[in-house]
Amino acid sequence: MAEEKTMVADIDRSKYDFRYEEKDFYRINNGLSKDIVDLISKEKNDPEWMHEFRLKSLDIYNHMSMPDWGPSIEGLDMENISTYVRPNTKMQGNWEDVPDDIKATFEKLGIPQAERESLAGVGAQYDSELVYHNIRKEVAERGVIYSDIESALHGEYADLIKKHFMKLVPPTDHKFAALHGAVWSGGSFVYVPKGVKLDIPLQSYFRLNAKGAGQFEHTLIIIEDDTYLHFIEGCSAPKYNVANLHAGCVELFIGKNSTLRYSTIENWSKNMYNLNTKRADVKENGKIEWVSGSFGSHTSFLYPMSVLSGKGSSSEFTGVTFAGKGQNLDTGCKVVHNAENTSSYINTRSISKSGGISTFRSAVVINNKAKNSKSSASCQSLMIDSESRSDTIPAITVKTNRADVGHEASIGRISNDAVFYLMSRGLSEEDAKALIVRGFADNVSKELPLEYALEMNNLISLEMKGAIG
Amino acid sequence: MSEVIKVNNIPSKTFGWLNVNNAEISGVSISKEAVPEVSIKNASFKDGKYLIDENVKDALIRFSFEQGDEQSEKETVIVGRENSKTIVVMDYRAKEGAQGLLKATVKIDLEKNAELTIVQVERTEDVTLIDELSGELSESAGLCLIRLAMSGRKIYENCNVKLNGRESRMNTDIGYYLTGDDLLDMNYEIDHYGKKSECAIKVTGVLKDRAYKCFRGTIDLKKGCTGSVGNEAEDVLMIDDECTNKTVPVILCGEDDVVGNHGATIGRIDEDLVFYLQSRGLGTDEVYRMVSKARIDSVIGKIPDAELKEELESITEKL
Questions:
Q1: What ipTM was estimated for this complex?
Q2: Could you report the per-residue pLDDT of B121-158, keeping only the tens digit for each?
Q3: pLDDT (tens digit per residue) in A262-307
Q4: Exposed (0-12), middle (13-18) or buried (19+): which is B125, by Cβ within 10 Å?
Q5: What is residue A467's DSSP assignment?
Q6: Is B246's CB within 8 Å of A361's CB?
Q7: In this structure, which of A28, A358, B51, B100 has its CB flanked by the most CB atoms within 10 Å?
Q8: Chain A CB within 8 Å of residue B9 CB
Q9: CA nearest A357 in B: which residue?
Q10: In a 3-state reduction of DSSP, which class is residue A465?
């Protein structure tokens, strides 16, 4: 009997690949121009400084060139993208008030259930606007703010937002940061006052239902000294045969002695260009923990960045990327050490199969001020077949002799020796292979709350049969 | 008319703000010249190429370069025929006080089962050196490159070798000792095409004072090179606080039945080792001198030429 080859099933996306008509939706014309930016600003009732900011960002966008590295984004044409699609509803604080089809969308994705069972607050964005936002009363009473940014721009935190908005990721950072600055819409503002530690997470979920559209949400989180917050973001979209674009921006400001865990399960559809920018600034003895699962998108450029600006601050990045057929996922992380006694730890896994391309790209910079700093990185890549690609492109810059840096990486396939060893310990061949591959991606799932770990494992959906190779 | 040239272009570009995608050299105006002094044993020079005939096992070719104020390119082509075994020694130096530029290009072609060990010692002081080596290896051919940057204000090393044949292999042992305002910019690229081809890139070195070093090492496992193995390891000792180190260890992989590994450690001497040696009566400076010397000696020890080895060891004694 012919031996069956080892199989790793493709991710089952049917749970996410449903869509609704854009009934009574407001949709701006495709393309990008000053008129469109003016219209978005007017729709969102921006304060004047934000309107001017958008126009300056547009000017920067028009004068910047595309990156000359990374995957091709030739299939992305801004003339075919609508930068603003608004459902016919205002933001609600009760799921019963959300229109039926939108509510049904989020129910299929498990968001209301998760909110009931295990979250301190939820923000749900549908196309360009938030449709639901809520925070538990007992959390709000502790002074935690979790709101949409648009409201916060006009409230008591308006000055705080103006002080921080796109200061960590300025529009000049790269072309798609500039695009974001011009057409951003939706997203959340989170503020955690000094001394507050939240035991249960806040979550934002982003759903892009519209065809040929972009989502440009902005997430701004400020946590003061001596706090703890776990923030989870999830995203998905139905698949279309035209390009969609996600160019969101996340800015995290972490106070002294505080910890922020930022977890993401990214499951955009395979027509999505995911050009997202995330950055954290960490003050003295603060910590940022990135937990990142990248499973979706046609093309991704995604490198969460930590700036360790306070003494003793630290960054941990744990990530897994799964690139299947038709996907080119360029992911990784960046850390800049700018103060003494800072530390960073990077632990990533990538799997590529059926012609998928997975690239791990990183930058670790230890500046001269960062005396006695440490950095360690480990990236492992698993190739399931020879149709796929897996590239590792790390870069390390060290500008002081008082730092310790280590980096290791490996690329390969499932080891026959490892399977044999486990079988010699009593496991069946199938169980041995399943154990190895599950263990390979375990670095991320074990960092997530149980519900999200299960969700992630559903996404991977490994099936092992027969012999290797 | 002089121009700005870009050298050491990395095969897979990365974030532009890191300034590692290539290196720029300004004020370049090169003219081609003949290769200078060379001593040949059991090899011949024909049609512009150094040839080692089939089955010749003890060929030796020595080159000695001494560059002045001029800017020149000197090209060497070496062909190792089937089953031959050759040692090539290239010593790059500068005339006293010279500030010219030398682009030394070496092209290597190894036929089936041919082996070549090439030793390049770079001590070009104030002369800018562009040291480029390229090679194509046939079935079971083996290339060993030993490169040592001992003293040079600006050295640009490049190496691009194609492991075309089945079971072809390449080993590199690279060492450097940089002081003052020395600059060493490196780009190594090994392309695996042949099945069961192997490469090992090992780099070790010392940075002192305000020295700057950028190492790019790319192992490219092409589709079809089943059973191939590529390993890359770098170890950098930074002695002074104004040094700059950049490391870009890249693995590109288009084949599943391969193994690719890289590792890098950058920093200072292990504190326990320093303490141990100090407890044996050594001062801190002496500890660093000893460890630095050991790193460079580990590369010198691999040079298969007794005369050159002895000369270099006498230099490291004075570090």
A1: 0.95
A2: 999 999 999 999 999 999 999 999 999 999 899 999 99
A3: 999 888 888 899 999 999 999 999 999 999 989 889 999 999 999 9
A4: middle
A5: B
A6: no
A7: A358
A8: no
A9: B254
A10: coil
Position A450, amino acid: L
Residue A241 in contact with residue A266, Cβ under 8 Å?
Answer: no
CA pair distance A411, A391, nearest whole angstrom = 8
Q: Judge whether B250 is closer than 8 Å to chain A, CB to CB.
A: yes
Measured distance CA(A269)–CA(A239) in Å, rounded:
5
- Residues of chain B contacting residue A363, judged by C-beta atoms under 8 Å apart: 14-15, 18
Report chain B residues whose CB lies below 8 A from the CB of A68. Answer: 13, 16
The region that residue A80 occupies, defined by phi over 0 for left and psi between -120 and 50 for alpha, beta otherwise, is: alpha
Q: Residue B312 forms beta bridges with which residues?
A: none
Both tokens of residue B113?
């089962």
Q: Which two tokens stand for residue B256?
A: 């599943």
Q: Is B267 on the interface with A (CB under 8 A)?
A: yes
Question: Nearest 10 degrees: CA dihedral of A295, A297, A301, A306?
Answer: -40
What is residue A449's predicted lDDT score, i.e. its pLDDT?
A: 67
Chain A residues whose beta carbon lies within 8 Å of the beta carbon of residue B248: 393-396
CB pairs under 8 A between A and B: 142
CA atoms within 13 A on the CB side of A367: 13
Residue of A nearest to B209 (CA): A401
Q: Which helix (H) or strand (E) holds B303?
A: none
Cβ separation B268–A409 shorter than 8 A: no
* Mean pLDDT (whole number) for B58-80: 95
